[in-house]
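task queued by scheduler; priority normal; single chain, no ligands, no partner chains; default sampling; output format set to structure tokens
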Amino acid sequence: MAIKISLCMIVKNEADNLNRCLKSVSDIVDEIIIVDTGSTDSTCDIAQQHGAKVHHFLWNDNFSDARNSSLDRAQGDWVLFLDADEELSPSSRDRLTPLLECEDIEGYFVKIINYLGREGWTETVPDLVFRLFRNKKEYRFRGAIHEQIADVILEKNTQAKYQIAEDFTILHYGYSDHLIQVKDKKYRNISLIEKELAKQPANRLLQFHYGVELFRAERYTEASEIFIQAAENTDPHTIYFPKLLRYLVIAQQSSGQLKEALNTAEIGLKLFPNYADLYYYSGLLQRDLKHYSQARNAFLQALSMPEQPPQYASFGGVRGFRSYYCLAQIAELFLDEEEALKYYLLSLRDNPNFTLALESLVSILKPAQEPDYAEECLKRICDFCTPEANRLMGEIYYKHGAYDLALDYFEKAADGVPVMSQLKLKRAICLLQARRYFESLRLLEDFTPESPDYALAVLNRLFCYWLQDMPHKVRSIWKELYALGLEQNTENVLSLFLMTQDKTNPSGQINLNSDGVLLLLDIVQRLVNLQEIERALFFLQTITSECLCEYALQIAQIFMNYGQEIQALPFLNTALEQKPTSEIHFQRAEIYSHLGKLFEAEQDYQVALKLDPNSPRPYLRLIDLYTASRQNILQEALAKFPANQTFVKLAEGGSDYHEAKD
């Protein structure tokens, strides 16, 4: 006699998900039982189209009651439970029937892959859930939320055996940010769990789930306290205990309890010495505590770990691209660009979609200053062949102000595909930055008043004519922009184009909000890129000293990005007057060093070291500086005393004067 399978589900307003779910089990289950808890969309119609038996249930804030209502109607020998935002993986379809033929197994833990994060960028986190079990009247769910049945089965049948269903996988999409927001899952779940905990305050599993919901609601301090309660007196062999420890570490880290989090991770690794996530988070914590050697060792340990068991719910990339990325960041802190590039590349090879590694790699290559070198390097190590990959590369170059390189990739991305408004606008801007004015204007004039980018297109037309010293055109377009009803800060910035034409002296009295400053700095960056330094300085001289001081570091960075270090110095000086930091002193020391002002460089490196003794970069630069100074002094001495054996021995490798003399 054939074994029959009942798919049991509870649903509410799942029209966007249900079709995908039911398609994934078509022809492999014998019946579909749908319990609807109050849908107002087409959920029930979709269920019936797939042959489901739909029953209605008056929602009472209790998931177990709803699930048990579906079990009461199931006729199969076995029950498979799915939620509407899940689906059975295609490779699992052929694995279901063989699992049910094992006569001594009462139920199965199933691997589930959770997709987390924003649309377009998702994380995959595996876990184990109990979803497949024999259909018996005494087996019923318990608990208003995060309902359980595995424990109930063991209570009813002390001889019951469970297994992990190998190669049988459920895919879960319900933790994407979009779906959580739509369903308001965080706050709904917190409310329900709090009601249950009031009835069962000592229930460790409920405490664990409560901590998870608090964590998702970003209530990290409360979450860490609950996780600690849940961990007390819980058997470490409990299936969720590794996840509990990992959550506790991250909650403590997120609430600023770095040393406590590190201690928790160390305790966890004694219990689970192959837990890659705990090594990874230990690395993050050691890095934040500026213990760089320990951090590096922890990331290397994470990379060396074996495949993680599903119950660890290991985050994707901790044994790969994430740890490589962190190793690259540490290498950058030690000014080892070669090693940093190596690890960024390994990160990208492990996950080509990890754009943080690509952006960091591009940043090291300084494409705004050395576009040819950056392009040559990236072509060797990265393959950009799809329109989307070319668009992404163009966006990264554009962000770094390397407009020529960005244009090349934007044009590749536009070949053979519809051109999006923003992509067309950025292409036009890149053409303008290449002083290909006619081509740029042709694109900019395509934008109509209905376009969301129309105002920016008109602004760039004004910029284009202004660069060509065409005052009548500038005035005409300025009036067109003014008629659009500009925000006051935008109007203030655009009025500067007229002031330069009228030869009006800058007053230094324009005060801008953050949006106005962003527009001004974008114009300044593009002028510096065009080597229009005087015009860029004119724009900067118009804003108030208070506004200039607040954004002095960002202004200095613009000039440094394009190798205009002398122009950057006054703004770094202004930033230091406002708030001296190790980073600003280090940046100024770098400029002094490039300009050959070694005494001034040494002073700034020393101050940077004093302000942040745990930063390795000032140490490394001072070692280089003193080594170079020693060589210069030695060469001068040899020029004056060419036959002196003491100086000759020092030049040949003697470490100090006394050693050379002996």
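post-processing summary
- Residues 178-183 have pLDDT under 50 and may be disordered.
- Residues 616-640 form the longest helix (25 residues).
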